[in-house]
Amino acid sequence: MTVSTTLWNISLDTTSETSLQKQLHKHIRGAVLSGALTAGTKLPASRKLATELGVARVTVTEAYDQLVAEGYLEAVRGAGTFVAAFMPDTLVALSADPEITSTSRTKPSTATLHSGMPALDHFPADKWARVAGRSARRLNIKLMYHSDPMGYLPLRQAIVDYLGQSRNVSCKPEQLMIVSGLQQGLYLVASSVLGLEDAVIMEDPGYDGMLSAARASGRQVRFTGVDEDGAIPPDKTEDAAAGLLVTSPSRQYPLGLTMPYGRRLELLAWAERSNSLILEDDYDSEFRYAGRPLNSLQGIDGGGRVVYGGTFSKSLFPALRLGYLALPEHLVEPVCRLRVAIDSFPSIANQQVLQAFMEDGEFTRHLRRLRKIHAQRKAIFEASAHRHLAHWLNFQQSDAGLHLLAWCRTALLASNLKDEKLAGMAQACGIGAIPVSRCYQQTKPQQGLMIGFANLGETEIDTALQRLAQKIHRETGFSS
Q1: pTM of the predicted model as reported, rounded to 2 decimal places
Q2: Cα angle 66, 67, 70; round to 5
Q3: At what angle do helices 362-389 and 349-359 cross, to 10 degrees?
């Protein structure tokens, strides 16, 4: 079968809800997998195929780009586009019939449920693949030798521009370091800047992942309590430690509190008095559903005593493993020196893709879409939770983030059903949940759940919460 027979006879349905680009992608992929288009076969130029099919040229170029990114096709500069000679085993194993959509590729697995996941089923995988393909084609010898311990400069510039506009962060690209996540970031800062007599001061309750990184640094670990305004200045507690305070003022983990401006000023004054530093974990700052977020601590401080940190795990996807630190100028050299010693520099490939994704405007468009989707799912989740779970759980009001905090009511506490087991029951129903009690260290643990709503489809929410209610009823004997 010739190329013209295979491709000229493709029928695209202009009335279908599936885009023409996706239909064309499916047809060509099917032809490759079925053997109708064999390895090394040259495909028609995009303009010629578009004319034959009666579609816009961009429809063909986007389909080609995605197939190149996925490994089905190869683009050779000056020669054209060819069926790939070798394909990954995962692609060969696929059937030519089932349509692989961006939704099916990113469907959450019950094995990896987490309370803080975004709507991964709405991640624009097609656009990411297109950008990835373009970035791969731009890879040259110079980039293959890229070894800047701070990270890829064009990406750092893009992040600095974004943070300045969205979070009022005051930072130059030379101060921004790309890291794999904030746990690595905390380890780097604590290990390179703090003396052995200094302490890493954690919120209690707080995120146990950051606590593990603090302990791995070999520095003392102290705790400061959390009240209705967020982290309490450490010199107002019994353990008046100094060193590096780790705090999440945008949305405290796990309590969901937003730190008011007055408390932010109190923490900055403490840092000045005690000659200490603050690591601002800007947790969940991208997702706020009412009002405008307060300026970052770093923006108020001007970048003198605050290290600002964030990641793309919630705004894009967790396996991307890309985050950043906005370092005060005087910390860049010591942190960079340790970075070189332990892992040299971050991988270039995903940095290139992310930079291009941001440059194209896809990142900000994706965030806008996610905010609408998350707000809708949050409203559905809250209504369903009130209907099915109000007898056992008291859901705390929240206008931000990807999870809701639910405290165990008296009826549940009386049954002696602990939040650890309750979280497991929720997971079994397909609901991402984490027990609140594991977040406490020195403060008396409270019983409750952090329950994710953003990564549950609108049609799945009520069924999942109803199943959880039935499980609780069977366990406790009390009906809602």
Answers
A1: 0.75
A2: 85
A3: 90
> The domain 147-347: what is its CATH number?
3.40.640.10
Of 307, 265, 260, 303, give the one whose Cα is nearest residue 282: 307
Write the DSSP assignment of 388-434 as a string of letters. HHTTTEEEPP-SBSSEEEEEEPHHHHHTT--HHHHHHHHHHTT--EE
At residue 229, the 3 state secondary structure works out as coil
Half-sphere exposure of 451 (CA within 13 A, CB side): 36
Q: How many CB atoms lie within 10 A of CB 88?
A: 12
Strands 448-452 and 220-227: unpaired
Could you tell me if 291 and 399 are in contact, meaning their C-beta atoms sit under 8 angstroms apart? yes
What are the helix (H) ranges across 35-70? 46-53, 57-70
Cα-Cα-Cα-Cα torsion 34, 35, 38, 41, nearest 10 degrees, comes to -60
Provide the 8-state DSSP code for 334.
Answer: H
CATH number for the domain whose boundaries are 3-100: 1.10.10.10
Q: What is the pLDDT of residues 360-396, one digit of tens each?
A: 999 999 999 999 999 999 999 999 999 999 999 999 9
Q: How far apart are CA 297 and CA 267, in angstroms?
A: 9
Which CATH architecture best describes the domain 371-476? Alpha-Beta Complex (3.90)
Q: At what angle do helices 329-343 and 182-193 cross, to 10 degrees?
A: 110
pLDDT digits (tens, 9 = 90+) for 100-137: 333 333 344 433 457 789 999 999 999 999 999 999 89
CA dihedral 191, 444, 258, 405 (to 10 degrees): 110
Instruction: Name the pairing type of β-strands 277-281 and 433-435.
Output: unpaired
- pLDDT tens, position by position, 403-453: 999 999 998 888 889 999 999 999 999 999 999 999 999 999 999 999 999
| Distance between CA atoms of residues 346 and 355, nearest Å | 14
